Amino acid sequence: MGFLGFIKGFSSVYRAKPRIRVYPSLCQYGYRHIQCRTFSHFKDHDDSVLPVLIVGAGPVGLVLSILLTKLGVKCSVLEKSKSFSQHPQAHFINNRSMEVFRKLDGLAEEIQRSQPPVDLWRKFVYCTSLTGPVLGSVDHMQPQDFEKVVSPVSVAHFSQYKLIRLLLKKLEDLNFHICKPEELSDEPFRGGELLTGHECVKINATGQSVNVTASHLKEGKHTERNISCNILVGTDGAGSTIRKLAGIELRGEKDLQKLVSVHFLSRDLGQYLLNERPGMLFFIFNTEAIGVLVAHDLMQGEFVLQMPFYPPQQSLDDFSFETCKHLILKLVGQELSDIDVIDIKPWVMHAEVAEKFVSCDNRIILAGDAAHRFPPAGGFGMNTGIQDAHNLAWKIAALVKGIAPSSILHTYETERRPIAIFNTALSVQNFRAAMAVPATLGLDPTVANSVHQTITDGVGSILPSGLQRAILDGIFTIGRAQLSDFLLNEKNLLGSSRLAKLRRLFEEGKSLQLQFPAEDLGFRYLEGALIPDSDSVGAQEPPTGHRKDYIPSSVPGSRLPHMNVRMLSNSCSEACISTLDLLPGDNVEFLLFIAPLEKSYHLAVAALKVAEEFKVSVKVCILWPAETIKGAEARSKIALAPWENYIDVAEAKKSSNSSSWWSMCQMTEKGAILVRPDEHIAWRAKSGLDDDPILEMKRVFSAILKV
Length: 707
Known about the structure:
Layout: H1 3-11, H2 40-43, E1 49-55, H3 59-70, E2 75-79, E3 92-93, H4 95-102, H5 107-114, E4 123-127, E5 134-139, E6 156-157, H6 160-173, E7 177-179, E8 193-196, E9 199-205, E10 210-218, E11 221-234, H7 241-245, E12 250-265, H8 267-276, E13 281-285, E14 290-297, E15 302-308, H9 321-332, E16 340-354, E17 358-359, E18 364-366, E19 372-373, H10 380-400, H11 410-440, H12 445-457, H13 465-480, H14 493-507, H15 517-520, E20 564-567, E21 576-578, E22 589-594, H16 598-613, E23 617-624, H17 632-640, E24 646-651, H18 661-664, E25 672-675, E26 681-685, H19 693-705
Parallel strand pairs: 1-2, 1-11, 2-8, 4-13, 7-8, 11-18, 22-23, 23-24
Antiparallel strand pairs: 3-6, 4-5, 9-10, 10-11, 12-15, 12-16, 13-14, 14-15, 16-19, 17-18, 20-21, 20-24, 22-25, 25-26
Helix pairs in contact: 3-6, 3-10, 10-11, 12-13, 16-19
């Protein structure tokens, strides 16, 4: 299926019917009340109604709760599990997510200090066993990845459960209370609580609020608790209860692959790989077993083994702790005395996106895996979810603070759902690339899946289950014989041909890829809380599956380009920061970039006047050339008086050949750029403004804030 066909699978007209209906809600009958500037409960505050309730305390829910709390929005979090999982799960954090983490009180720096050294995880290794011949390896890091030219921070390799620990600590630093069911009182939620062991079982959206019923175990009995909130955000994972209760369907491809995930520890294996062949992923193909080993931390010896799983002929009982130890040894290729299997989980790989992210008059919202389920290829799942939270937080804050009406929340879906669809297509494409390696070795996974389907649903379905299992095992054994030393070597004509083809696959970048800078940093919103211009026309190019470099852009909807700038102030004249650091993480504030020109100063004054009228904060950034001398601040002070919400900065070029800010943005210095609180560009004037600046700024803020 091509990219356009894949996209059509998400876009056909479809009306969902709730799969779980507990209470009828007004939104299910198409009810919409007339929009006002804010929800009524935000204007006439009722302590019994929580502004925001987040269901699901994974990385996305925790990041959203931190962002909202820093923005001054009261919120609480419900988590179904009584304790937080120690399974490593997601582990690759891309550039954009790390940029978000830089705003969370030093979180990015903590991750960089705590993660393994990059030389221990930069490669994917393909081999017949962990101690046997290497079929090839791919280094996914390039010199520019460390130069911090396109981003102030590099990617990271850091297990999800470790990330959750750090996020919980950040919440506690913000005076959040993490409570177990037995520690609760019967008082209404005030915000700032994270409740474990609470499962959402009912939701009822009314014209005024969303009423949530949560079940928890207290003194051995199931007890229900009712919580009223203005906004309910479901960040409760791929099997989202909130999504099901809201009657929101998923669209896309189901059941791409079933796998078993084995979490285990072995310091001996970690030390061996650290010294002999360090890497992040190890793809292992031999006659006795096939699997992908994720090295979460070689120094600690922490791993997750992923193996294909074919129910109903196989069951989870077939993967006992002892069986898994045996399979690990087959893949390692030698004895290990310290294998400690921690956990064994089955899971299913899907490629689906929710038909809508916002429902019930903008009161119920989905984010993260609740809104989209990707193959793990490329690490887009958690990263897309974190960026969902970043997009959503400032919009919720704008609504709660009376800056924007509830329609601002619909722009979250308008902007983020196309990104989710694109990232789904890219993840599927990358997953197919991963399957090209075993196919080249004579083990085409599509053939294995077809055989399994024939046995399960076709002519083989009439056979006894034991015979089905024997046939499946026999076919797979014959298939793995393609990997024998006799066949897979340079002296064998067929084996030599396959190995040569495999080398070309790696050299041409047609195997599984880790980094996609053009997509990680270069994704762009086409419509929403922004004003497109003539360069905004046209959808994003289909994914190629290959790594492409990020090209900075100032087109509305794009992420603000990164450049180091020098603060022009008497106290810290040599201090350098990123342009991304000019936006605060604790205020709904827009940033207007201008050059120190008379007409640009006039535009800035107009923006400040209009912003005051719209009750929104705007800071003006006057960006001076690198060779700026003293006196710049005095000029801005005179030009912008009596306004004081501005900052003077100068370009901090690495070399004389470096591009200027305006040329990097493909604009003239007569232009201006307005940036949203989430660091995406909302509007620009490429080469100055001929219209009345007051009227233009009113048009701009009306369109962005939907007022």
